[in-house]
Amino acid sequence: MESIKQQKYPLIENTKEHAELIAALASGVFILIAWLLGKNDLNTLSILVYVLAFIIGGFAKAKEGVEETIANKELNVEFLMILAAIGSAIIGYWTEGAILIFIFAVSGALETYAMNKSHKEISALMNLQPEEAWLVNEQGELTRVSVSTLKKGDHLFIKPGERVPADGVIFEGTTAIDEAAISGEAIPVTKLEGDEVFAGTVNMSGAVTMEMTKPNSESLFQKIIDLVQSAQDEKSPSQQFIERFEGTYVKFVLIAVLLMMFIPHFLLDWDWTTTFYRAMVLLVVASPCALVASIMPATLSAISNGAKSGILFKGGVHLENLSVLNAIAFDKTGTLTRGKPIVTEFIVREGIDQQHMLSIVAGIESQSNHPLAQSITAYAKQQGLTSFHKAQIEDVPGWGMKAIVDNTSYKVGKTDFVGREDAMRFANGVALTLADEGKTVIFVRDEEGIVAIAAMKDTVREEAKRAIALLKELGIHTIMLTGDNENTAKVIAKEAGVDAYIAECLPETKVQHMKDLMAKYKHVGMVGDGINDAPALATATTGIAMGEGTDVALETADVVLMKNDLSKIAYAIKLSRKMQKTVKQNIAFSISVIALLIISNFLQAVDLPLGVIGHEGSTILVILNGLRLLNKNI
């Protein structure tokens, strides 16, 4: 709705967006006019124009300060600025007071711009959502309808170049989809019938029909928007501390200003005008504007940067926590490895035709949904088999399967299921050698003994190796958690390049292992698929979910990688450390400027205009420094 208004009335909407800056500039023009009138001895008219400059330039900040003071029952920096400007006018320093209002208004406008710059990332996301879609009726006719009227089960037609209007699956057709808005990945993804598509992504080539599987309020795209919006609204511990500190500090400044109005007159023989003037200067230069602006713009910029790169932070606290991680634990299956074992060897008994036996085994395994069974079936197809022997099977949970193929009985499964001694003797004990290589071995037994074995291995992702190397460069200790036996775990850990591993790790013991790691390394991250790793993700200092942008990943972790790219973890940590460095720079700079201006005021080395420029200039600089984090190349 907002985007429609902007299209219809762009001038009005742009004027509203920049109202603070326009008011500030108008105030500056009136100050110049008032100064010229004063130069020509039109003092009364000059004061009236100064008052107009006060009202126009200071109204927005004065209103904000009063409203926040009433709402929070706590004084703030806006309140200090109002008092300083009024105080300057009382003692006849109309020009200085007006300049204070002008620069404070410009600073406020720039701060608003800084916040809007970050929030525009979300506005840009929201604008990617189509407002209309092509609805396909039962007769196959197309009707242009509002996306808000769509419901689950509707069939939608998407033309090349159009955005996907809702979450769903391809019902008919083939195309390539640009999913950069969801995952940050620039390379289009090929989509076939039955593949998932997400709202806000772009149909690049073929015309397709999709079936809507979720209402728009529950789409992945909407959840991402909600998540980033809530992350921007959630304040980090540092920001919360600064805001609590602000109220106490403002009270301290007001007490100091009251004392300064009297003590220098009696102790240093300053005249009353100088004493009051210096008190007003103190009111300006001691205000913590720059300190208050040291954190929020930097945090919002970092969150926006992450969102553009496919990294979603659920709040500033999690962004801060990443910077202090000393170790990261990785779930093995589906995180470090592909989670889909591949057959590396298929060995048969002497005198047996390998292709014939593979067809028999594939005929048995094709009737199971077990990942290992699916791997054998896929291997058979890779070997050129287009059809398998028909088998009657009986599933034996936890062990394997019994089957009858061409009136011959077979057992397929673990060592003890087929007979340990025969299994270990088969092919001169090759099973032990394969196990030492970290491979899982499945045995096939017929009525004469072991007839074949299939060795499988879950392969390590290439990007996982790169990610581990990047984390080591950052000084992060890496640990792999796996339910595999010691031999398999050792091989996978070596291949992945992790520093340590914990083998035979059951899902229910992962939490305890995480607690042990946190006792050793203090701040530990956990990377998992966001489903069975949920308890461990919650226990870790920072839980990082992999999952190709799944709903479960969005709900369980503190940080979500929208694409299964582990190298994004190193980028997120660098972004977090850069943010912390920026915040520390801002705080150190703002405190130094405040201290320098306060000392200079006591030495009467700085006047009100210079104090205003120094103070508000430092505020502008820390805001701009925070905005540097919007740069994608950290």
Automatic annotation (TrEMBL):
Q: Does the keyword Secreted apply?
A: no
Q: What is an annotated GO biological process for this record, any one?
A: copper ion transport
Localization, per the record, is:
Cell membrane
- A GO molecular-function descriptor: metal ion binding
Q: State the GO CC annotations.
A: plasma membrane
Query: What's the domain of life for this entry?
Result: Bacteria
Q: Does the keyword GTP-binding apply?
A: no
Domain named P-type ATPase A is located at 128-229
Q: What InterPro entries is this protein classified in?
A: ATPase_P-typ_cyto_dom_N, ATPase_P-typ_P_site, ATPase_P-typ_TM_dom_sf, ATPase_P-typ_transduc_dom_A_sf, ATPase_P-type_domA, Cation_Transport_ATPase, HAD-like_sf, HAD_sf
Q: What is this entry's stated membrane topology?
A: Multi-pass membrane protein
Q: Which UniProt keywords apply?
A: ATP-binding, Cell membrane, Copper, Copper transport, Ion transport, Magnesium, Membrane, Metal-binding, Nucleotide-binding, Phosphoprotein, Translocase, Transmembrane, Transmembrane helix, Transport
TM helices/strands, residue ranges: 21-38, 44-63, 75-93, 99-116, 249-268, 280-303, 587-606
User: What PANTHER family would the database entry show?
Assistant: CADMIUM_ZINC-TRANSPORTING ATPASE HMA1, CHLOROPLASTIC-RELATED, PROBABLE CADMIUM/ZINC-TRANSPORTING ATPASE HMA1
State the similarity comment: Belongs to the cation transport ATPase (P-type) (TC 3.A.3) family. Type IB subfamily.
UniProt-recorded name of the protein? Cadmium-transporting ATPase
Biological source species: Viridibacillus arenosi FSL R5-213
Q: What is the lineage of its organism?
A: Bacteria, Bacillati, Bacillota, Bacilli, Bacillales
